Amino acid sequence: MQIKELKGRYINNAHLEPVLKKYFRQDYQVIGFSEEKRPIYALKIGEGITKILMWSQMHGDESTTTKAVLDFANSFKSSVNWMNQFELLIIPILNPDGAFNYTRVNANNVDLNRDAYNSSQLEMQVLHRKYREFKPNYCFNLHDQRNMYTVGDTDQSASLSFLSPSADVDKSWTTSRIKSAFLITTIIRGLPDDIKSNIARYEDEFNINCTGDYFQSLHTPTVLIEAGHCKSDYTREKTRKYINNSLEQAISALAEIDFQQVENNLVVKKYQELPENSKRFYDEILIFETKIIGVRYIIEKQGGFLNFRPEFLNLNKESYVTNLVFQASVLTEERAKQHLNFRRNQIKYYGII
């Protein structure tokens, strides 16, 4: 059940706290504080024996999964069966300083998803402590990815990407990794057909300081879910629904699955059939007389608002995928010329031409 109070891309504790008080009054607690002393909240829901740890917004500018995991938690509470089978510990915003500033990094300019082994930052120390105390059977690591990603070499945006992280440098198929791969293929099978051509696999190079890899190396099945771009939906409300649906599919699978009946080789084969992400998508393509320029938006906080700053890159004809091409033959000639002139001035300002 969607929480309507949460909308847009800019989500921080000021948006989260009223939602916790309204929808989860008996379920939330402060589990620690950030480097700038902002509270880190967690929801604890359910009384079952299977324990699931979920965290979102460890990168402060990745809020789609925060909205989705709270929608999911709201629905979860209404299912007696789920409440009796599972116990959830959900950290909606692990990086509240980054969320406030709309930055990937925390207040010390550290990427928390490169701090799992070192655990040098307060936010990561909070996650480690809750992991040790809670002793989860499964982990879900929830992120946003940039619009640039496509499904392999196709022209489809990667609206969802999944990863069963590697547990070691050899990318071994450990028991925990097979379990998370099975969950991913089961999730995808249950998703609506209209999204299945927009699902990719995230690259699996091992890095012990990446949170998913670290927990996988500790033999806890861990699933990474990345919320991506869905056509012209820059608020990512469509993707939000697909993430919520993915979490529901995961819980449904865990409620029924007997992993002793799973054929490991078949799981690995099916998982590896997912196309890996490529970086081929551009938000706009500008076709000038002598060159083609791709535009990718960089979202930055300015005051209390988010600004989509264009990043310009020189392209060749074969290298791009986009939903929006501006040239004289597109839309009306006048509209295209106006936009090209506007972008040309920006490009000159940024020193591309």
Task: Give a description of the structure.
This protein has ten helices and 16 strands. The protein is an alpha/beta fold and 353 residues long. The protein folds into two domains: 13-279, Zn peptidases (Aminopeptidase, 3-Layer(aba) Sandwich), CATH 3.40.630; 281-349, no CATH class. The strands form four sheets. The protein has an eight-stranded mixed β-sheet, sandwiched between helices. The chain has a four-stranded mixed β-sheet with strand order 14-13-12-16, covered by helices on one side. A two-stranded antiparallel sheet has the order 6-10. Strand 7, helix 6 and strand 8 form a beta-alpha-beta unit. Helix 2 packs across helix 8, helix 6 packs across helix 8 and helix 6 packs across helix 9. The longest helix has 20 residues, at 237-256.
Shape: globular
Structural class: alpha/beta
* CATH architecture assignment of the largest domain: 3-Layer(aba) Sandwich
**Could you name the CATH class of the largest domain?**
Alpha Beta
Total of helices: 10
Low-confidence stretches: none
> Which superfamily, in CATH terms, is the homologous superfamily of the largest domain?
Zn peptidases
**Biggest β-sheet: count, sense, barrel?**
8 strands, mixed
Mean pLDDT: 92
Strand content: 15-25%
- Main-sheet strand order equals 1-2-4-3-5-9-7-8
Order of helices and strands: HEEEHHEHHEEEHEHEHHEEEEEEEH
> Helicity range of the residues?
25-40%
The strand count comes to: 16
Q: What's the CATH topology name of the largest domain?
A: Aminopeptidase
Distance from N terminus to C terminus (CA atoms, Å) equals 49 Å
Radius of gyration: 21 Å
Number of structurally distinct domains: 2
